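Consider the record:
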Amino acid sequence: EYELFGWALRPAAATNGGFNWYRSNVPLPDEITNQDFFPQPPQEITVPALLIWGSEDRAFVPEFIPMWKAVTRQLDVIIIEGANHWTLMSHPEPSNAAIQGFLNKTLRPE
């Protein structure tokens, strides 16, 4: 996992988007209040959503899945066996297939 992470972050600007997201959305540790935790009740995700999860992810544990389901009207969960936190990089084929299947189902319902 470390080698994959290093490879993905090798380009100079590879981390800019992620760091900027955290700078914009996450307060400093001593400034965090209960209002900063997501999602805040009674908020709900009302659009179809896809969660692609690596079975070997150690950053986000499977216990989070029911929490996401509780606040998302239509959540598809795909667990990719053997994938870690960097699922899209370590397992691009099944990740892309999951995204394509979700888009086909969502954008072209039967």
Notes: DSSP finds five helices and two strands in the chain. The mean pLDDT is 84. Residues 92-107 form the longest helix (16 residues).
